[in-house]
Structure formats: structure tokens, C-alpha cells
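Lecture 7 notes: from sequence to structure.

We start with a single chain of 71 residues. Read the sequence below before looking at the structure.
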Amino acid sequence: MLKRGIWRFIMRDQWNEMLRCPVCGKTGRANLAQDDDDVPTVQSVPSGFKVVSDRYGPDFHCETCDVAVDP
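Now the structure, written as C-alpha cells:
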């Protein structure tokens, strides 16, 4: 954002999380991002997985088995 000739940069981290269901063995890769001090946000989640909100941020579950996946 340009404000009176001064650029303000927001640092944004982006990373991938490999997901694996401990029951059925399904795997996939989720993409996440996080601004300076914000809670991480999910950019994309692979087919067969769902995002479950947690007070500490997003968590992933297998849609078929409905269990938390291993990161």
C-alpha cells in the first residue's frame, strides 16, 4: 500500500502441509498462509479432506473416516 510515498509491506508466510489419514491412509497436500501475527488460513485443501476450525487455528479431518489427520 502506498501512503504519502512510503511503502508498507506485510509479511506473509506460505507453506504446504502433507496430510495423511491414520485410518484409511489417504494422503494430500494443503496450502496455508499466515500474515504477521494472524491465525493461519487455509488457501486450499485436497479432495477427501475437510477443515475443522479450532481455537488455535485450522485442523484437518478425513471426510471418509471423520478423524483428525496426521500432519
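The beta strands are 2-3, 6-7, 12-20, 27-35, 41-44, 49-54, 57-62. Keep this in mind for problem set 3.
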